[in-house]
Amino acid sequence: MLPYQLGAVENWLRSRACLVVLGRGLGTQKVLLEAFRRALAAGQTDGQHSQRVLVLLNTPQEEAELLAKRASADPLWSGLRANLTVIGPDFSVEDRANAFARGGAFIANARILVPDLLSGRVLPETIDGIFVNHAHGVAELSADAFVLRLFRLKNQRGFVRAISDMPDAFARGQGQLEKVMQRCFINDLEIWPRIRKEVQDCLSHDFQPEVRQINLELPRQVQQIQRHILNIVQGTLGELKKDPNLELNFQVRDSVAAAFEAELRQILDPAWQNLGPQARRLVGDLGAVRRLLTELLRGDAVEFLRLLENLCDASPVWLHSPDAQALLALAKDRVYEVQSGRCVRKLEPHAKWAKVLEAVDQTLSDVIQQPVAPPIELKAEPVSVEVPGLGSDDSDLEMVAVHRVTKKPRTEPTDGVLEPRVLVIAPEDRSRLQVSALLHRGVEAALLDRLGAYLRDRGKRDRDGLVAREAEAVAQELQQLQPRSSLQMREVAGRLCHPRVDVAEPDSELEARLEEMQPHTVVVLEPSLQAIRTLEVYCANLGRKLNQLKTVKLEPGAQAPTPRLQVYLLAFEDSIEKYRYQQSLLQESQAVDSIIRFRQHVTWKVDPPTEVAPPEPSSRRGGGARALQAMVKPRVVVDMREFRSTLPFMLHLRGLAVEPVTIPVGDYVLSRDICVERKAIIDLVQSLASGRLYQQAQNLCQYYSNPLLLVEFDPAKGFVLQSSYQIARREIEVGTRDLLGKLSLLVLHFPKLRLMWSPSPRFTADVYLKLKEGRYQPDSKAAAQIDAEEADVPHSNTAAFDVLRKLPGVTPRNMHALARKAGTLAAIPDLSLEELAEVMGKPNAEQLHSFVHASHLPAATQDRGPEIPEHTAE
């Protein structure tokens, strides 16, 4: 690790509630793993914490597996009694409970951990500390915030340490930094940007890579296409600004920023229901045109033409504008031209492809010119690795690093064959596939392959057969074409070389990829702050290790590998990719300044959470009832699948005890007779279309006397079944008409079912509290033991089951068994007490038996009133 990374770890570990913000690409994973390891090792030096439990939250599955892999490969982790374990969906309830009971370091999904904490399978008091990854992404009602609150409610001694590598994320919105610190219960703040002196000292040295910044001029046709696209964007924005329901202040330069769509959506969501079809279509067109801008610089000419024609097939609003016609003509002219009834190809390769191939060839020449050194070995005895605690120095870290470097030189001759290694960093999947095809097949074959796929697709709609004939010609030419792979073994200057070229993405895995591959050359296809910073850190680590080699006695003739890394940084002049890179630098700089000012001038202290008192009972009830209700905390049974939503957290914040149970009917059980099925808007539409909601409503009405269908929509997004635009024009969409019709039929078919429309989880929680007033607490065992198979089977006599459900002693658990035993309601009085006890249990059987055999008529026959004649069925 670099000195500034170790400094960040030490400062982080000094506080029990601290947020560390690093600049993007400065080695967040290394800082996180080292802090995790030291916190775990500290418990092993203390006999009282031999079973220390540490948890890492807010880490995606792929990144979690990568962290676990890096920890298992690190010699410093091998000395610990516990490895880094990823708690995923494949862990059963028993496996999770046993794992936490044994102790260790865990990367856990918060949605899985919340039910375990609520049910008591994992006790918050047994957790020694929680690390929060990507702290900027902890939302207000997220599962991670729920876990942190449950942890802090019962555990004041454990630590909470958060980390983030996106300073600009804390500048989005008012007081975003304070909100994140409040959600994570954090009091201290550390920031390590690229401009900090310790970071600059580590990254400014002689071992920095040799950067060849290649500024490419946009081809003439590409410049014209970019200008026409920007004109279309400007026209679309102008049309949107005419809508009276919107207040847009965007300019064309704003539309090319990476965060434009998020900012636009934030403005559009509250007013979306009032927008007419024309405005909604313009919004969709704007997003599609922005994708054209990105694809123009990243993809080849054939791929751009395919995307453009697919957009034109959807008949966008801008299709008949002069810019659109010129754009389509230029895009076709880059691929083919029709002359005298013949299709003449004009395959224009991507301007950056030649530079990639040039970098591969140059790397071969450079590697061949380097003197070959035998593998470097340590003269001394093998290094014994000790696991340092919190107060140890870094000498063992340095020796392990020396041991790892000297075991494997950068260029290892294998049977006399050199392996020049080149890493290409591409921004997204489509670019990586194109570069891979280029390296394996050559420029001509890669372009012809894409052209053939495009012509086959367009030939299906071609009337005169010209495109289809050209597709056949391309296919035949591809069969005869010899691939020109840049990865084949070749002889250069009398020596055999087998190049290795990998393609990677500028993400959190890039640093591990560099350390594993140890490339000679790196090609950055598009300017990226993450990629450039990661390369700086990688070279600084490499240079530090090579400096340590100077103190190690090597075998005679052994030579240390050169640390010089060649980096090709490709960028188009006067393009949106360069503008976006400059904007990312500016945004991070402004965010860092804001965080530094906050740290210097704001005194911040977060109080630990407290239990929310249950709501006051109604004053109209007697004192005994109020005292009894005050002693019992209101409880809600929540289905396990519902913890993907934010409502359980809100219920907890409102003072309700949340009990996670897998229940086959409904999502929330509020009392013995109230059950709620929650639907988001999208779920409602899909369930109505598939018929699933009908079955769910039938089950609700069958097992509960007060079933409720809750339709909940996002408070940040406006929603109406019929917009003001439609009302003004007396119109209604077909989909809306269909939705209203199905909802009406559902309510008519199930008169007991009640609908509730909720604008937010907070509103829903308040309604739940009102509905629970004066009600018995729900029975979680009864709700969970409803036979799921019987719940999905429709019953022909729903009225009979309604009567049966109301009889004393009849519960959802024994209702179906009793129905099978008796067959009809009339046969129930004929069953003996012993027969009833077989299916209901003795207490319930006694209640039902005494009810059906007790005399309910008054003793005085003269007060009976007139006799009611019996009616027989026709």
Labels describing this entry:
single chain, 874 residues, alpha/beta, Rossmann fold, phosphoenolpyruvate carboxylase, domain 3, 5 domains, 7-stranded parallel β-sheet, 6-stranded mixed β-sheet, 36 helices, globular, damaged DNA binding, single-stranded DNA endodeoxyribonuclease activity
Describe the fold and architecture:
It is found in: Nucleus. InterPro entries: ERCC4_domain, Restrct_endonuc-II-like, RuvA_2-like, XPF_nuclease. Keywords: DNA damage, DNA repair, DNA-binding, Endonuclease, Hydrolase, Nuclease, Nucleus. This is ERCC4 domain-containing protein. Residues 635-715 form the ERCC4 domain. With 874 residues, this protein is of the alpha/beta class. The protein has five domains: 3-203, Rossmann fold; 219-345, phosphoenolpyruvate carboxylase, domain 3, CATH 1.20.1320; 353-383 and 393-442 and 483-572, no CATH class; 623-794, Rossmann fold; 796-857, 5' to 3' exonuclease, C-terminal subdomain (DNA polymerase, domain 1). Helices cover 49% and strands 12% of the residues. The protein has 36 helices and 22 strands. The strands form five sheets. A seven-stranded parallel sheet has the order 3-4-2-5-6-1-7, with helices on both faces. Helix 6 runs parallel beside helix 7, helix 17 (395-407) packs across helix 22 (529-549) and helix 18 (429-441) crosses helix 19 (443-459). The chain is globular and about 110 Å long.
